[in-house]
Amino acid sequence: MSTAIYPGSFDPITNGHVSILQSGLRAFDHIIVAVLHNPQKSALFTVAERTEMIREALGGDPRFEVDTFEGLLVDYAKKRQANVVLRGLRAVADFEYELQMANMNRHLNDEVETVFIMAKDAYFYVSSNLVKEAARLGGDVSRLVPPGVAERLRAKLRP
Ligand SMILES: Nc1ncnc2c1ncn2[C@@H]1O[C@H](COP(=O)(O)OP(=O)(O)OP(=O)(O)O)[C@@H](O)[C@H]1O
Ligand SMILES: [Mg+2]
User: How far is the CA of 82 from the centre of ligand 2 (A)?
Assistant: First the structure.
């Protein structure tokens, strides 16, 4: 069975993330969505809220698993016995950063390979950050995120 890890902040999960996960199933049998717990970075949603929204969005498909991790991604990959890290690539802006990360991870453990899937054009400019910014200003982001996420954004940002 082939397993890949899809790491990120997912603060919150967007339809762009969901689309990468669905495409990922064409290449991998099992994908672990790994929510990075980074105490240094302030997030809108707690890790528990983020994992709950991901679980909801993935609708109980047993090929997906949702987990959390702290520290080095390559250490987590080793612990989970996965040697592929899945990442999504949007506009050129992602490229430089993703290349640096992939090379650093390869340097730390060359048994872990990073695999990229290109973003769908509909989600090419969708990021968690932009979605939060738009929602904060009262914009309608319901086509960019799963239904449960749109609701929670409303509850959190416009009480
Ligand atoms: N719309 C999208 N289409 C394809 N890949 C995406 C999309 N949004 C994020 N990704 C990819 O998903 C992975 C995890 O991303 P991450 O959790 O940082 O989301 P993000 O939207 O970039 O969040 P932030 O705006 O907080 O940086 C990264 O590889 C990222 O490039
Ligand atoms: Mg990002």
Answer: 22
